[in-house]
Amino acid sequence: MNIKNRVIVIFLGAVLIVSVVQAFQLNGLKNRLSTTGAVAATGTDQIDTAGWTENEIMNYDMHGIIPARFGKGGSASASMVGGC
After folding, report:
1. What is the dihedral of CA 53, 56, 62, 64, to 10 degrees?
2. Of 81, 80, 69, nearest to 36 (Cα)?
3. Is residue 78 pLDDT above 60, yes or no?
4. Per-residue model confidence (pLDDT) at position 33
5. Where are the beta strands (DSSP E) in 1-84?
6. Tens digits of per-residue pLDDT, 10-56?
7. Which residues pair with 80 in a beta bridge?
């Protein structure tokens, strides 16, 4: 196998590893949101934004940013997690 094929195989392996890690991270985020009550009880997996400020709703709608307080067990922190 020449060097070009080895580089391609290594790159594809790295992409696969990153994809698997991020799948677990997304699953963990979904579990945290459901345990903190951020996911609506309608069974649609839509995030319940009833207690959010207008700024938090705008950041979620425009950028997909979920408030950090949902990852910290419901603290009243105003900082955000995620980004564009």
Report:
1. -140
2. 69
3. no
4. 66
5. 66-67, 80-81
6. 999 999 999 999 998 888 877 776 665 555 555 556 677 778 888 98
7. 67
Total residue length of the chain: 84
Distances from the Cα of 70 to the Cαs of 2, 22, 51, 81, in angstroms?
Answer: 49, 19, 11, 9
Letter for the amino acid at 57?
A: I
74 has pLDDT over 50: no
Would you tell me how many other CB atoms lie within 10 Å of the CB of residue 38? 21
Calculate ∠ Cα 80-40-25, nearest 5°.
Answer: 50
Contact (CB, 8 A) for 40 and 46: yes
Q: Give the Cα separation of 69 and 76 in Å (integer).
A: 6
What DSSP character marks residue 69?
G
